[in-house]
Each structure stands twice: as C-alpha cells, then as structure tokens.
Amino acid sequence: MLTVDTGTVVLQFAGYLLEVGLLGFVLLRRRQRRFIPIAIYLSLLLAIDGVGRAYVLHSYGFSSPQYAYFFWLTDVLLVLAAFLLVGAFFRRACLQEDRMWHFLRLMLTFIFILVLGVSFFSLLQNYHNLFSRFIVEFQQNLYFTCLVLTTLLYILLQRRGSSDEELILLVTGMGIQFAGPAANFALVFLTPGQRFASNLYTYIGPLCTLGMLLTWSYAVARLPEAVPMRARAGEVAEMAAAPRQA
Predict the structure, then answer these.
(1) What is the mean pLDDT of the chain?
(2) Which residues, in sequence order, are CB contacts of 206 under 8 Å at separation 6+?
(3) C-alpha 190 chain-centroid distance
(4) In a 10 Å sphere around its CB, with 0-12 CB exposed, 13-18 middle and 19+ buried, how is residue 3 labelled?
(5) pLDDT number for residue 245
(6) Which long-range contacts (CB under 8 A, 24 or more apart) does 24-33 make?
(7) More confident residue, 75 or 241
(8) 19 and 46 in contact (C-beta within 8 Å)?
(9) Cα(156)–Cα(175) distance, rounded to whole angstroms?
(10) CB 89 within 8 A of CB 170
(11) Quick one: pLDDT band at residue 239, thresholds 50, 70, 90?
C-alpha cells in the first residue's frame, strides 16, 4: 500500500521544479538535437508524474484503486522510456562504430524480449491477480535490467577512455535513478509482508530522481559544449595528415 506524507510531497515538488528548469534550459539553449532523448524523457516524466498522477490523485484520492492502478501502470511506462533512453546513450557512445552499435541494438532488443518472457513465465506460478502481478514483475525485472545496462555502459565508457564527460555524467545520473528503486525492490522481496520496505519506496523513488536531475543539470549547464565525435575524429585526421603534406 502506498503512503504519503510531507517529506514525500517536498521531494516530489523539488523534482518537478528541477524537471521544468532542466527541460526549459535544454530547449532555450537550442541544443535539442543532442538532447532530444533527454528532452522527451523529461517531458514524459513531467507529464505523467507532475500532471497525470496529480489529476488522478485529486479526482479519486490517494487510497483509491484507480490511483494505485494508474501509478503502477505509468511507472511501467516510465521504466520503458528509461530503457529507450539507455539505448540512446549506447548509440551516442558508439557514434563512430556502426558495427558495434548494430550488435548492441540486437542485444538490447533480445534483452527486452527476454525480460518480457521471464515476466510472463512468472505468472504461471500464480494465477491470481494476473494483471497486477505482471505489471509489478515486469517493472521490477526491467528496473534491474536497466541498472545492469547502465553499469555496463559506464564501465565501457571508462575502459575506452571516453572524452565525452557529459555522456558519462548523464549515464551516472541514470545509474542513480535505477540503483535506489532496484535495491528497494530487492528489500521487499527479501522481507515479504514487511510494510517498512514497501513504504520506503515512496521516499527512494523521488530521492533518486532528484539525484539524477541534479547530476544531469550539472552535466548540461556546467560542462563546456561537447564537440561531436565525428567532427573531432576529422580534426585528428587532418592533424595527422598535415606533416605529410608539408
């Protein structure tokens, strides 16, 4: 059962302010092309969490089944959007390596189908409340998957010595977003029937979202404008060819 208190409301409103400010900054700075995936994700996060859930909450009340179903359904939608955003980060990391990106794209597609299949398979063990069980199971599996993929991408960037510090911070922010809820899901699984673990989610989610938004704000606002990887590679090639021409 979801619970709400003043601390949760404060965290949520702080997140809304950061979402609006970061989205507005990205759009006003006219850097939409590089940040289109982030702008879409922020817009979806703001529309669902800041508008949609607030409307359903006001219309039906916090303890209503309508709000509970809407909350978990939209949470799955946000996790799906986050999974696509992680895929966009993989694409940016492999901007010059089309063959690697082709392999990673197939891998990400296979992983998503695998998560979907595992979630369906888990329903065979319990036929009660199929819809709600599938939603929760799929959400948790996808959360853990996104956490693993984000960790692998961070390691890949570090091992390759990537100079795209902005991307590294964006990936770090996604890791913060996934780590808390994934750990909370594991705690709920290890302590069945304990309300403390379930209620903790109302704090963990907004707190991790704040951490992600603060990290993204630093990456977007404080770091210098990133040079496109293809342009940088062209400059290096010209510098290498200059002595030969001389």
Answers:
(1) 80
(2) 8, 11, 12, 14, 15
(3) 24
(4) middle
(5) 45
(6) 25/217, 25/220, 25/221, 26/220, 31/220, 31/225
(7) 75
(8) yes
(9) 14
(10) yes
(11) very low
Cα–Cα dist 87/108, whole Å: 7
DSSP helix/strand/coil, 205: helix
190 to each of 149, 186, 199, how far by Cα in Å? 23, 6, 15
Cα 175 to the chain's mean position, in Å? 8
Non-local CB neighbours of 176 within 8 Å, separated by 6+ positions? 208, 211, 212, 215
Please name the residues in contact with 30: beta carbons below 8 A apart, sequence gap of 6 or more: none
Which tens digit of pLDDT belongs to each residue from 82-135?
999 999 999 999 888 889 999 999 999 999 999 988 877 766 665 555 566 777
19-35 pLDDT tens trace: 999 998 888 866 567 78
Per residue in 189-210, pLDDT (tens digit) is 777 666 666 677 778 888 899 9
Cβ-based neighbours of 181, under 8 Å, separated by 6 or more: 143, 201, 204, 205, 208
Nearest alpha carbon to residue 206 among 34, 68, 16: 16
Closest CA to 74 of 57, 54, 49: 49
Q: What angle do CA 8, 141, 127 make, to 5 degrees?
A: 100
Q: Are 227 and 166 in contact (CB under 8 A)?
A: no
